[in-house]
Predict the structure.
Amino acid sequence: MELLEQLRKITDKKISLCSIDDLEKYQLIKEILIEDDCFFHIKKDTAYSILEDLDFLKKEIPSIYEKLIAPNVYIKTKFEFEIEG
């Protein structure tokens, strides 16, 4: 979840610094990142696009994506959802 929080902070920074042309894109990314399990609900190519828009290097994206969809992350988000729900 630490990585997801980092992505949220990067997105907020992008929103505060971006041009009006990019604002809609970063607001959409922010909406997607609200849910802790968001990367389990979007397609891989969408996730890669988000990471690329947040300025991660293309060669880093596969390993970052794997961390975001790791089984322990899924179990943690699923477990927290069941407790809250």
